[in-house]
Amino acid sequence: MSAEIEEKLESMEIQDDELVFDLSMKKKKKKSKKAEEEPTEEAAAEVQEAAPTDAAEEDPMAMFGEKKKKKKKVKVEDDANAEGGEEAGEAGDSLDFGELKKKKKKSKKVDFSAFEDGQDQEGEDGARDPDDIFAADDEEGVPRSSSKVGEAEEGWIGSNRDYTYTELLSRVFKILRQNNPELAGEKKRYTIVPPSVMRDGNKKTVFANVADICKRMHRQPEHVIQFLFAELGTSGSIDGSQRLVIKGRFQQKQIEAVLRRYIVEYVTCKTCKSPDTILTKENRLFFLQCEACGSTRSVSAIKSGFQAQTGKRAAQRVKAAAAQ
Amino acid sequence: MSGIQNLQSYDPFADLGESGDTGEQQNYIHIRIQQRNGRKTLTTIQGLPKNFDQKRMLKIFKKDFACNGTLVEDEELGSVIQLQGDQRTKVSTLLVEEGGIDKKQIKIHGF
């Protein structure tokens, strides 16, 4: 038994090394390994056991989104269950296995990080915003090793062991995705270009692509700008080339956070989460109507709230005197 | 009419009083941030419940966060607490943990 585990560990380590190569290479190698280990029936089962989990790990993060993490956990438990049937002492080992896998995952993450920076983080902290909109546009929908998933998923076909729930679930999703992808919950993620924010001199910030972002959200720039100023507690203006000049120093991520809040409050439909909405004003009240599901809700007007006095009082007094 | 128990408890068409706003919205505690010169910032806390003594709250805030602050009277918004520096998260955690205020009632603004 222990020899087998060692073998397993070894194979894991080998895979670890392989991570530097691309996925297609790895696929080939694993296949050959499968062939080698076939003689002993138990070992074959082991490989099959391990294969689906690998597949789950390789599954592009985008495919399952947040669900993925949960799923992985289940997988590990599954392994434990399958092995636990043999001996009680096995439990500790399988735990070990899980840990090892975790390690492996980490190294893989580093591997992928080149092209899924943003998504990686999402996967990790689980509690991220459901609508992380500022992912770069090209990030989504990269079909990574999806063929591999299919190959490994039917792991129960050769053996006479029972299929696990997770295997069946992924099978259902695979078929669903093949036939009608719009039902598989793989909606096109709502993305917006990240705000391009530059410093203008020492005290002002230029937000260059307001107009573009407003157009993408189907909102009036005035409304967005009003919200920005109210949230940031400043003022500003639009310059000649449709850029927004904000008083004060702001970084891109700060603007991004405010925009995200704007989208949650004024763009996404609360009922169906669709960003496909229009904002209308009916006698002093703003209503948000969803184009996708047709629901209407009222949204609160933007209130700037209390503005504390900053800056020189003398300057303020001069201004007040000039106004009169 | 009055025999029906349900209808006695709440009249949806009753006047809300002088505040034209719905009761819910009025109850928010807004915590805002404002930039001053350089890296300096100002935190304002608006809409603390009436049963909180603003002066004492200010004292607690000042002591806990080791910052200065003041109480500003505004014509529309009532008294507002101003604190030096970015104390937004600290204020909200203190209000939630010590003040027994629901987290949903607190709105943190700013970046």
Task: Please characterize this protein's 3D structure.
The complex is a heterodimer of chains A (324) and B (111). Chain A is of the alpha+beta class and 324 residues long. Chain A has twelve helices and seven strands. Chain A is elongated, with a radius of gyration of 27 Å. With 111 residues, chain B is α+β, with helices and mostly antiparallel strands. Helices cover 28% and strands 26% of the residues of chain B. Chain B has a five-stranded mixed beta sheet, with helices on one face. Classes of the chains: A alpha+beta (324), B alpha+beta (111). The interface between A and B is medium-sized, with 20 and 19 residues.
Q: Can you tell me the overall shape of chain B? A: elongated
Q: Helix-strand pattern of chain B, N to C?
A: HHEEHEEHE
Summarize the amount of helix of chain A as a percent range.
40-55%
Q: What is the radius of gyration of chain A? A: 27 Å
- Major β-sheet of chain B, in short? 5 strands, mixed
Family (chain B): Belongs to the SUI1 family.
Domain SUI1 (chain B): 29-99
Organism (chain B): Mortierella alpina (Oleaginous fungus)
Protein name (chain B): Eukaryotic translation initiation factor eIF-1
Task: Briefly say what this structure is.
Chain B: Keywords: Initiation factor, Protein biosynthesis. Chain A has 324 residues and is an alpha+beta fold.
Topology:
The complex is a heterodimer of chains A (324) and B (111).
Chain A: H1 2-18, H2 23-37, H3 41-58, H4 61-64, H5 67-84, H6 90-125, H7 146-153, H8 165-179, E1 197-200, E2 204-207, H9 210-217, H10 221-232, E3 236-238, E4 244-247, H11 252-267, E5 277-282, E6 285-290, E7 296-299, H12 313-323
Antiparallel strand pairs in A: 1-2, 2-4, 3-4, 5-6, 6-7
Helix pairs in contact in A: 1-6, 3-5, 3-7, 5-6, 10-11
Chain B: H1 5-9, H2 23-26, E1 29-35, E2 41-46, H3 54-65, E3 69-74, E4 78-84, H4 88-97, E5 106-108
